[in-house]
Amino acid sequence: MDDDHAMAYTTLGSTGLDVSRLCLGCMNFGSGAPWMIGNEERSIEIIDRALDLGINFLDTANVYSRGESEEIVGHAIEGRDRSELVIATKVYGKMGEGPNQQGLSRKHIIDQCEASLDRLGTDYIDLYQIHRWDDETPIEETLSALTYLVSEGLVRYIGASTMIGWQFMNALKTSDIEGFERFVSMQPEYSLVDRHEEENLLPVCADQGIGVIPWSPLAGGFLTGKYDQEEEPEEGQPNAWNEVVFVPPRVTEVEELNKTNVFAVEELRKRILNTRKRLKDIYGNQNPVDRTIVENRLSFLDRKFEEFESHINPYHVLPGLILELDITSVKRKKTTMMSMANVLNEFLYSVSKGFADQAFAAFSRRRSTERSDLEQSFETTAE
């Protein structure tokens, strides 16, 4: 691999653990569902390709095909330099029919860790994650069991996945107070299509120095363009619009608005290359007048973007605006959100003018309703 395309590495959260920027998710390695690969040889080929390209971070779970995924990962890494691999797996899901075959009790965690080690064919797990929050088990018991695994050398770091922000903060503070091992990472669902974690887990992670490992960052393949809203899915594939790209109706009045935006993201994807090429062509011309025109246009788009964002709550409406594009050709440095300037023209004027208008109207109605409810509550209190 040449230097221009070499794998990038970063540390996981506040730890010193170096991981590749890309982590290979291993949920579809195994069998039992139409969307799973169902072929160990093919699965190992994918893992080998990822490792050869510099990915050193593999993420699986005991519940994926009831351990089959872990076994495949174990076979794939056999003979590799284990000291350079970061193997992550998870615990919580149902692994049998008995009453102790699920959850985050001390018994289940330790039993499942030992079983995962056997399936992975390794002496230790680099990142052991709780797959979900367990309302039935005190967090102190869960953290105590995970701390024991670390002290025994069976686990290097512990992480978590998919929960409410206050639950995660509670776990972190319990570790701080009681001296338990602390979670170093979080796996939330996060993509251009679903951004609700911006008001749930992501602020906690930013504040606490927690590494974020988004799951389904391409929305089950939807954001790659593999699905077309006008076509029926192939046999064995999920319906991307109903199963993969689900947009929960956080606020009833914007449910249809959310769906409209999902379609807008797909349209936006198709227009990105043309938009970037046009800007590059304009900037390729050394005429200072042309350069000034483009700069003024980008400044105008920035203002429009700020206006648009001020009316849109990403927890309720998922505008799918976080596209980190290479805009070095226009020699402008922006934050992640502002890097949309070279695409925003298409978004505001071609793709979603109607969407934007609907958004403003919908949220104006919602704010009006909230204001009315607040005024009514004050009147009731005054009486």
Summary, kept brief:
By secondary structure, the protein is of the alpha/beta class. It has eleven helices and nine strands. The chain has two domains: 213 residues, NADP-dependent oxidoreductase domain (TIM Barrel), CATH 3.20.20.100; 111 residues, no CATH class.
Describe the SSE topology:
Elements: E1 9-11, E2 18-20, E3 24-25, H1 40-52, E4 57-59, H2 68-77, E5 86-91, H3 106-120, E6 125-130, H4 139-151, E7 155-161, H5 165-178, E8 183-187, H6 201-208, E9 211-212, H7 240-244, H8 255-284, H9 288-311, H10 341-351, H11 353-382
Parallel strand pairs: 3-4, 4-5, 5-6, 6-7, 7-8, 8-9
Antiparallel strand pairs: 1-2
Helix pairs in contact: 1-2, 2-3, 3-4, 5-6, 8-10, 9-10, 10-11
What report would you give on this structure?
By secondary structure, the chain is an alpha/beta fold. It folds into two domains: 3-215, NADP-dependent oxidoreductase domain (TIM Barrel); 252-362, no CATH class. Helices cover 45% and strands 10% of the residues. The chain has helices at residues 40-52, 68-77, 106-120, 139-151, 165-178, 201-208, 240-244, 255-284, 288-311, 341-351, 353-382, and strands spanning 9-11, 18-20, 24-25, 57-59, 86-91, 125-130, 155-161, 183-187, 211-212. Helix 3 links the parallel strand 5 and strand 6 (125-130). Helix 8 (255-284) crosses helix 10 (341-351) and helix 10 crosses helix 11 (353-382).
